[in-house]
Amino acid sequence: MIKFLLNQELRVEQSIDPNMTVLNYLRTHVSKTGTKEGCASGDCGACTVVLGELVKDERGGDKICYTSINSCLTFISALHGKQLISVEDLKDQGQLHPTQQAMVDCHGSQCGFCTPGFVMSMFALGKNIADPNKGEIEEALSGNLCRCTGYRPIVDAAEQMYRSTEQDQFDRNQQQTIERLKGLQIDEQPQLSDGSKSAINPRTIEELAEQLSANPTARLVAGGTDLALEVTQFHRQLETLIYVGDIAAMKAVDVFDDRIELGAAAPLTDCYNALANDYPDFGALLHRFASLQIRNQGTLGGNIGNASPIGDSPPALIALNAEVVLRHGSANRTLKLEDYFIDYKVTAQQPGEFIEKVIVPRANGTDRFRSYKISKRIDDDISAVLGCFNLTVTDGTITDARVAFGGMAAIPKRAAQCEAVLNGAQWNLATIDRAKQALANDFDPISDFRASKEYRMLTAVNMLTRYFVEIDQPAVDSRVVSSSVVEQYVPNKVVTNQNIQQQAQTGGAAHV
Amino acid sequence: MSSHNGDSHHSTLTQEQMMALAKQGLQTGVGRSVKHESAAKQVSGDAVYVDDRLEFPNQLHVYARLSDCAHGRITKLDVNPCYDFPGVAIAITAEDVPGQLDIGAIMPGDPLLADGKVEFYGQPILAVAASDHDTARKAAMAAIIEYDELDAVLSVEEALEKEHYISEPHSHVRGDSKTALANAKNSVSGSVHIGGQEHFYLETQVSSVIPTEDGGMIVYTSTQNPTEVQKLVAEVLGVSFNKVQIDMRRMGGGFGGKETQAAGPACMAAVVASLTGRPTKMRLPRMEDMMMTGKRHPFFNQFHVGYDDNGRITGCEMKLAGNCGYSPDLSNSIIDRAMFHSDNGYYLGDATITGYRCKTNTASNTAYRGFGGPQGLIMPEIILDDIARSLGKDPLEVRKHNLYNGMNGLNGFGQPLTSDDDGRDTTHYYQPVEDNQLPEMIAQLEASSDYQARREAIRAYNASSPILKKGLSMTPVKFGISFTATFLNQAGALIHIYTDGSIHLNHGGTEMGQGLNTKVAQIVAEEFQVDFDNIQVSATDTDKVPNTSPTAASSGADLNGKAAQNAAQTIKQRLVEFAASHFNVSNEDVRFANNHVLIRDEIMAFADFIQLAYFNQISLSSTGFYRTPKIYYDRDNARGRPFYYFAYGVSCSEVVVDTLTGEYKILRADVLHDVGASLNPAIDIGQIEGAFVQGAGWLTSEELVWNDKGRLMTAGPASYKIPAIADMPVDFRVNLVENRKNKEDTVFHSKAVGEPPFMLGISVFCAIRDAVSSLSNYKISPQIDAPATPERVLWAVEAIKKDSNQQAATQPETALEPA
Asked: Which has the closest alpha carbon to B480: B516, B526, B428, B523?
């Protein structure tokens, strides 16, 4: 069985279909239809709900961490031990939550179908950041699509709700909820089975290793943000699921002097700080990696393990000379990440083996790591091309060149000929020009709906130009989203509600 | 008279207290930024959409199996395997439809289920109903379908070449464009592809039906056109219209995509429910919705324009070829509207505008905000940019030379008209432009957006920025308001006042988020001078208001607002006459003010007054009706006044473009838009902002891609990218034109707002072209098809680099590569 809180109501589930998503559970199983399905693929955010999870605070005490997730991509097993909060739960004694009231006051809902998702994303943001800035608001809402408003009133609502300092019912009930969450722990291993399909939640790496060895065809679920698509979009049945999200050791992020160790089940959100601190451009890349809801669920292990040629993290990790630790039973082996990928969706991972962690070397002081993501839309889009560059330059000579691409081949791959030109050459424009020519021989990309092969190649080549400019002439504006370009346009005004009120009066005056 | 009802909250007040309230005036009537009537329900999850309705124990769910062939004869269709799945109630094909198979909106051509042949990839062939959606889908996929594949026409150019049309080409002709072009001092010609657009309403198509004891159907559906769904459900069942009731409370977005496209799922569910006797629901998964339903028409537009040295157009020929998809649907009117808007706000001189209605083997393209208007309206904006580049002038200056004469006798530069301007006030379909506000609106936005200074700042920035280039553009919108099918310009409403003074309001329009119910309720509130909260709007219901027109063409508030006002005024007139006679005063002595009624010097609460009227046997219920005056159109001669009036807007966008990738960002957008006397400024601004962003999306990131089999490859939000939050302009300044009433007698002299601001997004497209043009020092006008995806922008950058290198080896090009 699994146990969780449906807001404050204890739920115990045992024989429910483990392929059921939290969205379908809410809408059909418990008839809470406030949460909407817009796409069932994690791209629109209409199904956003919030999970409350027991974590330790800085002083070792208990606290609840609230995260927004896409309920359409979350299997029910992930709820074990947690509190599930949906939009219906925000009203308190008939009064709208400040988040909801702000959306009403700022005219943030039109057709209203995306609204519950926005409300939940904003609610989670409010629980995590006391006074978020505009960038943090945009980040929190980048995974929520609205087709009606053009977003301005929603941003206004997000800004307005943070001026409310009053405690909500979740704050007031926090201690009680902590106790109830603690009470969800069960002795036996959490599992679900509907007779034909089953899911199990191991709690230690050892349990996982054992169960996967026994069931080598079982599918591992971490965030499930890719795997769930097999159910919701490709209509497959996943017979045996092993959910790794309850294994604390696999969710750890440890920073050592020489390396960062990222547990394979650590959500991307948790990896962000450690990586962004050493490699700011990795942070910038993670900001554009899907949406916050996906990053709250999705993991580095999953992004590597699904072996997509267009996954965003592998090229960056390869350029940083990262390694993966693979485990089988009690045996470990460590592999360069670039050697993990063999062919389209084929990896070096053997049956029964799983990714335990990812090891990234610490930055060596000079930050020459850059990543460039090309997509039709800046936020929450899949890369057409992703290029990552990490050059070491000593006394004007390139002593180590690591260049890796996604979207240019069947696997995330280093640009060998380009690197060969760069290695040992002088750091100057002539070298870059030769490297660009060599790069054209490294890859033979495909054309699809995201981009033509010619565009992929030209933008890949152009990345070298950009890389040289960014390192050599840092004052030059080089990215349309960089703060040097954008910040001067950010308006100083707080909320335009006042303008609307003014116009209301003017508009009204025209009638008399 | 206050003894009857202790609940009436004002009845205990003194006369003086009530007088004071009456003097305060109504706070929630017309012109106020009243909150959307559903807002509190929407934010809390309490608002019920069709799919949220409680299901019945014997509920059926329908899934349609779609064609995976763009054009073919069906040689085998076997649904027997569907029945192997437990829970399957029925599998239907075209043969099982009891009544009429065709559900074409105006002309036939849309079979509910494929009838022997398929004409696009994604066409429904059969439908399976089962106890749950998943079972229905699995069973439907088990059916056996075989085709004889036929040649498919997949592009508009191929259809044009083969004269493969859904109906004949049609032209608007003024003067002799051929001679004008021959005599023109300068000329420019070219062609451009304008992409389609997926509606991407967040709520996909959905209908839920319950069979009635009379062989009819109650239909809960997400549609902009309840009456048409009623008609089509009745027709596919073979029953009279009065057996079918449509209930439409709200849509999770429409944008035109639920004007005709909602009928398919409603009819399929109805056929299943009729054959099984069970309540039935059909909700389309996102991918099926995107593959099955029509979109904005892609266009291939060709032009040849003559102009003088000021850039003023003297003659113009345009060929606008719309990709209608496989069936007529609404395409005739849509291509017509593209033609009607090919002038935008400009006098085209001697002009021949021809619209081609191309038939292709793709989903039948349909209404989408602007209804073809945007695809025509963008043409002069592209052309005037081209003209400006050829003359070395600022595009805004060239635009001003071409505007229709302004309403105050001023030209585009704010100067008095001269004899050169004679006749420059009539469109190419001979409708006078009587209230052209564009000259003054452009002047106002030019000043408030600081256009000229920013133009200089951008030139300076571009000269020193090797990778990023900024662009700026100001484009106007003039959009005609009325259905061009004149008979549709009618509406009905129904108002009841109950004896507690509360008001029930119903009208023929549909709420899709645009705030129509809110505006109409404000109108009724204003008429009766009662609080907005005293009015309960209810689901659009064909039992309450019959024979409604679709909520489309931006007409919702214009038509239904007037109809509701008419109903309110009818009741009000009865009440006034009653009071005059009852209290022995004149009609003029009876006034309604802020929830009270003044009868000469007496005052009473509205609720008390209504009680009194009831006891005196006054009818407190009325229908209302409205039809738009003045409009007519003679299509055979392409002349008339198809539009009651025009709505105007101007936008100015600044973008930054990355010349290494073609990526871009909207840095600032200034908008000035004309809504007449606004019914609700907050809602109007919401419409304008939303439309701008949607319009910008149409022309930038929203790209529809089909493969060579005619399959839509961008059939979900993972591949089809509508604007996200970071795509809104960094600095977004939207203002309404102030103190400007509609000169026509519209409801409270407001103007329609749904569609016109969509085309404000064109300034983003033109600003991207401007940024790319900077690479040639504004000598070359880049050719970019819409949508201007980063890839298309990069190819334009590459082309212009090549051209300007060839054209001016002496011209020191701004270094792309750092020195």
From this structure: B428
Residue A269 · residue A139 · CB < 8 Å: no
Taking only residues 270 to 289 of chain B, the set having a beta carbon closer than 8 angstroms to any beta carbon of chain A reads 285-287
A273 confidence band (pLDDT: 50, 70, 90): confident
Do the chains contact at B468 and A477, CB–CB below 8 Å? yes
Give contacts of A455 with chain B, Cβ < 8 Å: 791, 794-795
**pLDDT-wise least confident of A276-290, B329-343, B367-381, B494-508:** A276-290
Dihedral angle computed from the Cα positions of residues B176, B181, B184 and B190, in that order, rounded to the nearest 10 degrees:
150
How many angstroms separate the CA of residue B430 from the nearest CA in chain A? Answer: 31
Query: Are the beta carbons of A481 and B665 separated by less than 8 Å?
Result: yes
- At B479, which helix (H) or strand (E)? strand B468-481
The answer to whether B513 contacts A88, with C-beta atoms less than 8 Å apart, is no
The alpha carbon of residue A188 is apart from the nearest alpha carbon of chain B, in Å, by 32
Annotated catalytic residues of B are: 755
| B31 inside 8 A of chain A by CB | yes
A505: nearest Cα among B674, B801, B27, B762: B27
Distance (Å, whole) CA A319 – CA A463? 14
Chain B contact probe: residue of A32, A113, A459 with most B CBs at under 10 A: A113
Contact A112 B250 (CB under 8 A): yes
Q: Is B514 an interface residue toward A (CB < 8 Å)?
A: yes
Coil vs helix vs strand at A8: coil
Distance CA A292, CA A282 (A): 15
User: How close is the nearest chain A Cα to the Cα of B253, in Å?
Assistant: 5
Backbone angles phi, psi at B116, to 5 degrees: 85, -25
Q: Chain A within 8 Å of B709 (Cβ-Cβ)?
A: no
Residue keyed to tokens 């992930």: A78
* pTM of the predicted protein model: 0.96
Contact present, B394 and B388 (Cβ < 8 Å): yes
pLDDT digits (tens, 9 = 90+) for A455-501: 999 999 999 999 999 999 999 999 999 999 999 999 875 444 444 44
Q: Among B661, B703, B741, which would you mutate to test the A interface (most chain A Cβ atoms within 10 Å of its Cβ)?
A: B661
Rounded Cα–Cα distance for residues B484 and B158 (Å): 29
Burial class (CB in 10 A: 0-12, 13-18, 19+), B299: buried
Distance CA A380, CA B718 (A): 9
**Residue length of chain B:** 819
pLDDT score of B6: 40
Q: What percent of chain B has pLDDT over 70?
A: 97
Over residues B572-585, mean pLDDT: 98
Distance of CA A84 to the CA centre of its chain: 19
Tokens of B783: 């050719």
Instruction: Give the residues across from B189 on adjacent strands.
Output: B304
Q: List B209's β-bridge partners, or say none.
A: B219, B280
User: What is the percent of chain A with per-residue pLDDT over 70, rounded to a whole number?
Assistant: 96
Give the whole-angstrom CA distance, residue B479 versus residue B762. 14
Nearest to B669 by CA among B636, B640, B692: B692
Confidence of residue B12 (pLDDT cuts 50, 70, 90): confident
| B443-448: average pLDDT | 98
Alpha helices in A370-481 (DSSP H): 416-422, 429-442, 453-472
Query: Read out DSSP for A339-397?
Result: HHEEETTEESPPTT-EEEEEEEEPP-SS--EEEEEE-SSSSSB--SEEEEEEEEEETTE
Res B816 pLDDT > 80: no
B731 touching A, CB under 8 A? yes
Q: How far is CA A58 from CA A63, A72, B109, B430, B516, in A?
A: 10, 32, 67, 75, 51
